[in-house]
């Protein structure tokens, strides 16, 4: 018997149901684009499908800028591992630095 918890998207029927709801919302918004009068500021806002194209182009630009930024922001996988490697070799088991055979700040009462 499996004790794993079942999530919403584990059932393919739920995924299809959510996609149908999404497609229905898109169809309603498409129809409303012809029915509702928009108060435009610029003439290009009156073009058919302007906001859909604007949103798509904005998302594409966002992805391209993120890929460009990845080149100089991304660090190697072991970036933080190399920082304390030398210090770790000169420390005790609990991470405190060694000093004359006893750990500094440690609880070594025999020293």
Topology record:
Layout: H1 12-35, H2 50-73, H3 85-89, E1 98-99, E2 102-103
Antiparallel strand pairs: 1-2
Could you describe the 3D structure shown?
Strand 1 and strand 2 (about 100-105) form a beta hairpin. The two termini are about 55 Å apart. The chain folds into two domains: about 10-40; about 50-100, no CATH class. The protein is mainly alpha-helical and about 110 residues long. The longest helix has 24 residues, at about 10-35. It has helices spanning about 10-35, 50-75, 85-90, and strands spanning about 100, 100-105. Helices cover about 50% and strands about 5% of the residues. The protein has a two-stranded antiparallel ribbon with strand order 1-2. The mean pLDDT is about 80.
Give the tags:
mainly alpha, 2 domains, two-stranded antiparallel sheet, 2 strands, single chain, 3 helices
Unreliable spans are: none
Order of helices and strands: HHHEE
Rg, nearest Å: 30 Å
Query: Helical percent range?
Result: 40-55%
- SS elements, strand count: 2
Strand content: under 5%
Largest sheet: 2 strands, antiparallel
Number of helices: 3
Strand ordering within the main sheet: 1-2
Which whole number gives the mean pLDDT? Answer: 79
Instruction: Give the tally of structural domains.
Output: 2
Spatial gap, N to C terminus: 57 Å
> In terms of structural class, how would the helical and strand content be classed?
mainly alpha
Coarse morphology = flat
């Amino acid at each position: 018997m499996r004790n794993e918890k079942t999530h919403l998207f584990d059932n393919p029927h739920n995924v299809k149901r959510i996609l149908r709801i999404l497609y229905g919302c898109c169809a309603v918004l498409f129809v409303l684009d012809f029915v509702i009068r928009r108060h435009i500021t610029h003439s290009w806002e009156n073009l058919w499908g302007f906001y859909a194209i604007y949103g798509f182009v904005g998302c594409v630009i966002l992805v391209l800028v993120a890929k460009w930024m990845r080149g100089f922001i991304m660090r190697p996988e072991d970036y933080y591992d190399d920082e304390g490697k030398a210090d770790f070799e000169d420390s005790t088991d609990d991470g405190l630095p060694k000093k004359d055979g006893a750990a500094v700040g440690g609880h070594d009462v025999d020293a």
